[in-house]
Amino acid sequence: MSAALLAQQLRPEGVEIRLAGSPALLDSSGALYLPDSETLVVADLHLEKGSSLARRGSMLPPFDTGATLAALAEAISHFRPAHVVALGDSFHDRRGPDRLLASDRRTLAALVAGRDWTWILGNHDPALPEGLGGRTAEEVELGRLILRHHPAPGSQRELAGHLHPVAKVVLHGRGVRARAFLTDGDRCVLPAVGAYAGGLNACDPAFDELFPRGFTAHVIGRQRVFSLPRAALCGD
């Protein structure tokens, strides 16, 4: 794919990287786009987390699903992918699909319709109802990459979620924490897209095991994605 065409597809606030030898566009929504296969990849939507917490007595504004779907819809509108892969934990629990508001259900149905859609199963949603559309899978092979929920041990060419990476840096004496893509050029762990999804600090040992040679953190800022080396980050 030509550099000019890639530049047209990349949003101004995004970043282009090479992943397993092919171009990948990191979007400020938290989505990753693979232009060679016209595939948009998102991780950890955690739809209906708010309603799940409410059932346990934690009263939060019940708008997380709407906000998450709006971010997803914006990315889909821009990239117009032929294929969408959701990397697991798309719903916060097994009953999440049953709790969707009618308006959110219609929005999700419109996003799924007319394109190839794969729901990777996660630990929060090990099964999904057929009425959502698309298909379910444990993992997907796409070119030289494996797309799965939980990062696999050892050296891998993969796209994975599950860990919700966030990067913390200190600016002007103040700690700033934001979602981040972590990659070493072969593996990429995607940030959670879900509005209420938490995050694991990129300096956690869990990431050291996945990236023994280090990684670059592509940190989602308010106006663009910043690329920082592992050494520039700090723990909580």
Plain-language structure description:
There is one protein chain. The chain has a single domain (3-232), classed as Purple Acid Phosphatase, chain A, domain 2 (4-Layer Sandwich). The longest helix is centred in the first third of the chain and has 16 residues, at 64-79. The chain is of the alpha/beta class and 236 residues long. The model has no long low-confidence stretch (mean pLDDT 92). It has 5 helices and 16 strands. It has helices at 3-9, 49-54, 64-79, 102-112, 205-210; strands at 15-19, 22-26, 32-34, 39-42, 83-86, 116-120, 135-137, 139-142, 145-148, 158-160, 165-171, 174-183, 188-189, 200-201, 216-220, 225-229.
Tally of helical runs: 5
Based on CA inertia axes, which overall geometry fits?
globular
If classified by CATH, what would the architecture be?
Answer: 4-Layer Sandwich
Q: Report, as a whole number of angstroms, the end-to-end distance.
A: 40 Å
The total of beta strands comes to 16
Helix content: 10-25%
What about the largest sheet?
Answer: 9 strands, mixed
The CATH C-level class name: Alpha Beta
User: How many structural domains can be distinguished in the coordinates?
Assistant: 1
Sequence of secondary-structure elements? HEEEEHHEHEEEEEEEEEHEE
Strand content: 25-35%
Let me know the average pLDDT: 92
> What ranges have pLDDT less than 50 throughout 5 or more consecutive residues?
none
Determine Rg (CA atoms, Å).
17 Å
CATH topology label: Purple Acid Phosphatase, chain A, domain 2
| Content-based structural category | alpha/beta
